[in-house]
Design goal:
Length: 540
C-alpha cells in the first residue's frame, strides 16, 4: 500500500514510525506498554500493561470491573478472545419485572446503573488468558506500572477531568462511588493528583494469584458480599463459573484485504456488513470528503444496523448465523436497496436461514495485538466495591427485556455488546491492528477509516483525524462540526436528519491504528492515535 502522507485535516499529531509501538488513549498507558517491550516483553505484555494502566488513569472509561475483547496476530495466525461478561444466574425478565415493574406493553423495566446493570466482569480474565497463551514476562511484573501509578497518584488529564465532573450528578449516590472517585467531595480538577491506593492493592492480588483472587478468592467474595448487601443478584458462583472464550474471528473481503472482527455477541459484524455492501460500489471513484461518498457509506451503515439490531445476540440464541448475514448474495441484494440520491429508513433484511478504551501494540518479532476494554456508560454501573477500587461495568443494559428477542436477558447469557477490536490482513499476512471507541460509533469508525485508507490511500493519522458522521439508533445522523459545510448541506438535501456535534470525545469516539509497513517486521510499523482524546502513539 502506498499512502498519501499528506494530512489535510487540522491536527497536532504526526504518524509514529518504530519497530516496537504502542498506541492508546492515554500517554501513561502507552509508556507502560513501552516499558514492557524495553524489558524484553512482547506485544501482549505491552497490551496488558497498557490496559491495566488505563483502569487507573482513565477510570471514566474503564475499570477493574470492565469487559474486554482482543484479536492477536501471533506471527502465524489470528486468535480472537471474547471476555464479555455473562448475566447472573438469577436474571430473567420476571426478575426485573418483580423489582422494577413493567411498561405499557408489559415489558419489564430495568435500571441503567447500580448492581442490577452489572454482568460478570470479564477484563481481568482477558488479561490472564492473553498472558497464559502469549505472555513472556511474569504477570505481576506486567501489572507493576499500573500499581505504582495507582499508589503514588497521577495528575488527571484534561479530557478525563471533564468527563469525570460530568458523571458526578448521576453516580455520586451509587455504592462506593463517592469514596473511590470523589476523594475531596468532588471530581479531581485538571492536573490535580489522584491516588487510587485500593486499586493498587487489588492489582497486586490479581498479579500474585494470576487472577484467581478476582473470580474465586478474596476479591470475588467482596464483590458477592457487596451485591448481596445492595440487593443485587451477583453471587460467588457467578464469578467462579465464568470463563472467557477463545473464538475464531469473522471476516469480510474489502478491496483485496480481509477485515476481521470478533463474532457476535459483539457488533463487529456491522462493520463487515457495511463493508460488504460498499464492496459493490466504486467508492474510490467518488470525491473523498464529498456528498456522494459520505451518503453511500451512511446508507450502507444504516442497512448494517437494521440487521444487527434485529439478529445479533449471544450466538447460542441467534436466529441466523454470521455466515448467513455475510453471505455475498445477500449483501449484494441489500446494496441494491440504496438510493444514491436519497436517504432511506431501512428495515431488517431476511438472511437465508441455515464510556470504552482501545489500545494496540506491536513488536519487532511481528506480534500484533488489537485490544479493547470498557465499563460502558463512562464509569459503568457507578458501583465500586468497597476497599478494592473495582468499578463495575453496566453491560446488562445491553440485554433486551422482550421475551421474543434473541437478545432477551437470561442467566449465564452474554448481552449484545458494543466494544469491538479489529484487524486487517492481506493474503493471510498481517497489515493493521486497529479500533475506534464510542458505543455505536465503533463499527462506523471502522468503516470510515478503512475506506479512507483502502479506497483513498489516506495515511493512518489522516484517516484518524478526518471528520466523522454517526448513525443513531433512530437513523438520525450526527456529524462532526469540522465536516465540510457543503457536504453537510448536501446530506440534508438528500433527506438526512442531522445535527452538528461539538464534543468529538463522546460522540465520535477516538481510535488507534498500527499499520505494518512491509512483510518484514524489521521494517517496522506506522502508528496513529486519535487527537479527540489525550492519546499517544509511541515506539522505539
Amino acid at each position: 500500500m502506498t499512502f498519501d502522507w499528506n494530512n489535510p485535516y487540522p491536527t497536532t499529531r504526526i504518524p509514529v514510525f518504530a519497530r516496537n509501538v504502542v498506541a492508546t488513549s492515554q500517554p501513561l498507558a502507552a509508556q507502560a506498554g513501552l516499558q514492557m517491550l524495553r524489558s524484553g516483553g512482547n506485544a501482549v505484555d505491552a497490551a496488558i500493561a497498557a490496559a491495566a494502566m488505563l483502569t487507573i488513569v482513565e477510570p471514566v472509561s474503564c475499570g477493574l470491573g470492565s469487559d474486554a475483547f482482543a484479536i492477536v496476530w501471533d506471527g502465524r495466525q489470528l486468535h480472537g478472545l471474547n471476555a464479555s461478561g455473562t448475566a447472573p444466574a438469577a436474571w430473567n425478565p420476571e426478575y426485573f419485572k418483580r423489582k422494577y415493574g413493567e411498561d405499557a406493553r408489559g415489558i419489564a423495566k430495568r435500571p441503567q446503573r447500580g448492581w442490577d446493570s452489572v454482568t460478570v466482569p470479564g477484563a481481568i480474565s482477558a488479561w490472564v488468558a492473553l498472558h497464559e497463551k502469549f505472555g513472556r514476562l511474569p504477570f505481576a511484573d506486567v501489572l507493576q506500572p499500573a500499581v505504582e501509578i495507582a499508589e503514588r497518584g497521577h495528575a488527571v488529564a484534561p479530557v478525563v477531568a471533564h468527563k469525570w465532573e460530568a458523571a458526578i450528578p448521576a453516580l455520586h449516590d451509587q455504592p462506593g462511588f463517592a469514596s473511590a472517585f470523589m476523594p475531596r467531595g468532588r471530581a479531581p480538577a485538571i492536573g490535580e493528583r489522584f491516588v487510587f491506593a485500593e486499586a493498587a492493592e487489588t492489582l497486586r492480588k490479581i498479579g500474585a494469584t494470576n487472577g484467581r483472587a478476582f473470580y474465586e478468592g478474596e476479591l470475588a467474595e467482596r464483590m458477592a458480599a457487596c451485591a448481596k448487601e445492595c440487593g443485587g443478584a451477583m453471587q460467588l458462583a457467578d464469578l467462579r463459573d465464568y470463563r472467557p472464550e477463545w473464538v475464531t474471528p469473522i471476516s469480510q473481503r474489502y478491496r483485496g484485504h480481509e477485515v476481521h472482527e470478533i463474532p457476535p455477541n459483539g457488533q463487529g459484524i456491522a462493520a463487515l456488513i457495511a463493508l460488504g455492501i460498499l464492496e459493490q460500489f466504486d467508492l474510490g471513484g467518488l470525491a473523498l470528503d464529498g456528498i456522494d461518498a459520505q451518503h453511500l457509506q451512511i446508507e450502507a451503515m444504516k442497512l448494517a444496523f437494521a440487521d444487527i439490531y434485529r439478529y445479533v445476540a449471544d450466538p447460542r440464541s441467534m436466529d441466523v448465523t454470521p455466515a448467513q448475514m455475510l453471505d455475498p448474495a445477500y449483501l449484494a441484494q441489500r446494496a441494491k436497496q440504496i438510493d444514491l440520491q436519497r436517504a432511506t429508513h431501512f428495515t431488517p433484511g431476511m438472511p437465508k436461514a441455515g464510556g470504552t478504551v482501545y489500545l494496540t501494540a506491536a513488536d519487532e518479532n511481528g506480534m500484533m495485538v488489537s485490544f479493547i476494554q470498557s465499563n460502558y456508560m463512562g464509569f459503568g454501573s457507578g458501583v465500586v466495591v468497597p476497599g478494592t477500587g473495582i468499578s463495575l461495568q453496566n453491560r446488562g443494559v445491553g440485554f433486551s427485556m422482550d421475551p421474543v428477542s434473541a437478545n432477551v436477558v437470561a442467566g449465564g447469557k452474554r448481552p449484545f455488546h458494543t466494544i469491538i477490536p479489529a484487524f486487517l490482513t492481506k493474503d493471510g499476512a498481517p497489515v493493521m491492528s486497529f479500533g475506534v471507541m464510542g458505543g455505536d460509533m465503533q463499527p462506523q469508525g471502522h468503516v470510515q477509516t478503512v475506506a479512507r485508507m483502502l479506497d483513498y490511500h489516506q495515511q493512518p493519522q489522516a484517516a484518524c483525524d478526518a471528520p466523522r458522521w454517526k448513525v443513531n439508533r433512530d437513523f438520525t445522523l450526527d456529524v462532526e462540526s469540522t465536516m465540510r459545510a457543503d457536504t453537510v448541506a448536501g446530506l440534508q438535501a438528500r433527506g438526512h436528519q442531522l445535527k452538528s456535534i461539538e464534543d468529538p470525545y463522546m460522540d465520535f469516539g477516538s481510535g488507534q491504528f498500527i499499520w505494518r509497513l512491509t512483510d518484514d517486521p524489521e521494517d517496522g510499523y506506522v502508528a496513529a492515535s486519535d487527537s479527540r482524546r489525550d492519546g499517544l502513539a509511541a515506539g522505539f
